[in-house]
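## Example record

The block below lists the input lines for one assembly entry, exactly as stored, with component labels intact.
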Amino acid sequence: MKRRTLINILLYAILIAFAIFYLLPIYLMVLTGVKSINQVDLKTMWSLPTSGLHIENFISGFKQLAPNLKNSLIMVIPEAILSSLLGSLNGYLLSKWKFRGSNLIFTLILFGMFIPYQSILIPLVKFIQFLGLYGDIPGLIFVHIVYGIPITTLIFRNYYAGIGTEILEAGRIDGASLLGLYRYIMFPLSAPSFAVVIIWQFTQAWNEFLFAVILTNQAHWPVTVALNNLAGSQLVQWNVLMAATLLAALPTLLVYLFLGRYFVRGLMAGALKG
Amino acid sequence: MFRKFTLSVPRLILAIFLMLLGAIFISILSKTQLVIFGKNLTSIGILASGLLFYSGILALIAMFESETVLSIALLAPSILAIAIFVYGFIGWSIRVSLSKWKGLNPDYTWAGLQQFHDLFVNNPRFLIDIRNTGMFTVGFILGCLVIGLGLAILLDQKLKGENIFRGIFLFPMSISFIATGVIWGWLMNPAVGNRITGINLIFKYLGLNSLISLWHSTPQPWGMAFTIIPAIWQLSGFTMALYMGGMRSISEDLREAAKVDGASEFQIYQYIILPMLQPVTLSAVIILAHMSLKIFDLIVALGNKAISLDVPGIYMWTTTFDGANYGQGAAIGVLMLISVAILVIPYLVQNMRSENEL
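Predicted structure tokens for the full assembly:
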């Protein structure tokens, strides 16, 4: 028994060491974010604030990023809702209405989530320009929905595959059609999967950088592009930058904190059956 | 599957109404512009009207055709979108990569494999990119696998607080690569002497002066090796979660049986759990490798486009959109695609086969 306790202490020590490694950057962000400017001297980077908490860094960071936070928000909400509806329909059809070649089509759709987007970027820019959507947020929403089809379809398809066909057959006997079965049986059962997909798409689109930097102009930059730009400028003070980074990461961090279960399920679905 | 054809007058009227409405909107939008909140959304409007028209067709199909046809028809818009935006655009990119296009005006003059030749011969920057990607990929995958498996085994010991630790190890996945790059850029500050800061400062406090490092500013080629640290910080928890999923699927009975047979805790891992986790390792390697082959945002935020930390994703971006060298940019994109496809296609095909057997 003694030996077991010793081992446990050792295991906890390792786990705590790793936890410190993972939390260190967050600690630094919060710590630096609440320090006053004459306290963010490089030498005292790790010391606790001595002249009280300075929330004004967050206000200043928020002022710099507010338009971009707004851009991200108005991009992400319609994107997450529309792409989850589309994924739900696709997932239902590809799991419950299999036809010859439907697995092949599904695999061809899935390939779209692995491609490096650099390999479609030039045609994409030209096409979005042709549609007159270049530079603004609707174009970015459209692009996120299209390239979100593979993952949203995958998550819903796997979820629906786990629902037995008996319930559909029962609905069938009651005379429901293909869409009736979806409307009255599958859709009401889909709430957990909608939670997973909406949260996943929200996080992905919020954190995405490549499409955002290529397809939007400065007035419509989402927060990732603005943050990268802020970090690259020499003028910004360090404490403000840290506060801004925390603000930019906060929405997805909060989603993780409160709805982590669903986020992790989306994460695991991306690994196919792994 | 086949239903008897049933004519329903209200449905027929609905179908015709939807088609008419869609057609009317399309004809209006082809002449004028749709502006909402000051944004020109004409093309979105045309798309929506097209879908309205198509839903009328769907209503007709639902009446006259089998449900298999209806299900394919319902899938058609998504299939079409993927066909255009994935496969069509890949084909278009390949065509651009075989052209001489340089400058803002499209130029599809045939150049054969010249763009690829230019990248591999006499282009030191692309060779740096290949070396950097190779170094990053190997270090990143090994680091994530070792740490991920280690943490999964630790959390498999049924200690109290398991959920809290798992939550802490996984949270970096919810943050953007850009934010990660910005934070770690400050932690891995290379300044020395009076301006020493970041992790180096901690090393100094602890008297570990030999560990003080220039981090990713280390001269080539080793600077790239340090960009692996934030990448592992972000994705080792994900790898851990993959392994934990794999371990959970190993039945408790099997472990118990081994224990009854006198196997030690260590032997259970060595002979039972680890061999059974091999498929998880394979999935993890493929997913991590495809991420590292297209790594982009993290390096942008960390390296600020420094050549010593260049990767193909950044080169493609700068050569295309800053340098207007579209042919070259497309060639880099195509090479990135090939490297990912070699890895992912066998995985997808195998995944499809195993499904077909079910």
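The first helix of chain B runs from residue 9 to 29. Chain B has 15 helices and two strands.
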